[in-house]
Amino acid sequence: MSRDRGPRLKKIRRLRALPGLVTPEKFFKFIKNKKEKKKEPFRKRNKEYRVRLEEKQKLRFNYGLTERQLVRYMHIAGKSKGSTGLVLLQLLEMRLDNIVFRLNIASTIPGARQLVNHRHILVNGHIVDIPSYRCKPRDIITTKNHERFFKKITILKSKESKHLSIKKDYKVKNFQGQVKKIIDRSGVLFKIKESLVVEYYSRQI
Question: Which residue has the higher pLDDT, 108 or 72?
């Protein structure tokens, strides 16, 4: 499967915070050291398109998707009941690589994808090496080598992550992450206007 190998910090400079792409420490260090650049004026008639495009790019780069993958998710969300934008975010948030990231087993989504590809992640006791695997409520997420990941396991932004839970056994240094329910809008980590993404694709597709 193809993946984006471009410079991550250039994307951060253009689109601002993407929590799934780089660690917070690296992001704030980059923002502190970078020089402010004057914004180039652009035609008013292109402003709306540019805003929609940037929101779409935020979504794509944060979750590490190709354009084809994002279009496929848009088709699925469009055919589902409920708000298309909310369903789209739920589909992306419930991907296995994102759940591994939210459990803090990996510090970034690309790092989580690598762990999944290298067969370190188990779902309900079975190895799953497909990053796009869609997790469901009551799924149990564990790793092959518990001691390696035990110390840093904690739910990112636990107050906003009501859809996940963790059980730790300190005696044997074991843990279990569980998906309790489908994530709601308040649980999404980064700021995104999903309605603009839907508008972008409604004009493109």
Answer: 72
Task: Name the residue range of residue 117's domain.
Answer: 96-181
Tell me if 3 is assigned to some domain.
no
Is 18 within 8 Å of 190 (Cβ atoms)?
Answer: yes
- Per-residue pLDDT reduced to its tens digit, 23-57: 555 554 554 555 545 454 444 456 888 889 889 98
Residue 162 lies in a domain: yes
- Are 137 and 123 in contact, with CB atoms under 8 Å apart? no
Q: What is the DSSP code (8-state) at residue 44?
A: G
Q: Residue 137's CB: how many other CB atoms inside 10 A? A: 11
Gap between the Cα atoms of 156 and 153, Å rounded? 9
Give the CATH number, domain containing residue 113.
3.10.290.10
Stated pTM of the model: 0.77
Q: 30 and 76, same structural domain?
A: yes
